[in-house]
Amino acid sequence: MTAVALVLGGILAVACVLYVALPFLREPAPSEDRLDQPGTLERRALELAEERDRALGALKELEFDHRTGKVSDDDYRELVGPLRRRVAETLRALEPRAESAEERVPASG
Q1: Which stretches within the chain are classed as H helix?
Q2: What percentage of the chain has pLDDT greater than the value 90?
C-alpha cells in the first residue's frame, strides 16, 4: 500500500512540475517574441531617467573629488550649483504630477 502511494505521489509531482514548466519549455511564436517600440512619452521618460542618472553620477563624483582634495573649494562651489540645478530639473520633469499638485495648493502665510 505504501509503495503504491509513493509511486502515485511521484507521478503526481512529476506531472505538476511538467505542467508548471511547460510554458518555459516551448518556443514562443514569432509574433509573440517581439518587443513593442516605446511610445513618445515612454521614450522621453527614459531619456529623462538617463539624464538624471548622468547628473547624479557627475554630482557624486564631484563631491567625492572634493572630499579627497582633487577639487578645490572654489572649483567645487563653481561646479556644484549647475549640477544640482540639472538634477533638480530632471527630477521635476520626471514627476509632473507633483509639480501640478504644488501649483494647485495655495501657499500658506
Answers
A1: 2-25, 40-68, 73-94, 96-104
A2: 52
- Give Cβ neighbours of residue 46 (< 8 Å, ≥ 6 apart): 38
CA distance 15 to 104: 59
Of 95, 85, 81, whose CA–CA distance to 49 is shortest?
Answer: 95
Write the CB contacts of 51 (distance below 8 Å, at least 6 apart in sequence). Answer: 86, 90
Hey, what amino acid is at 91? L
- pTM for the model: 0.54
How do residues 31-53 score in pLDDT, each as one tens digit?
766 777 888 888 888 898 999 99
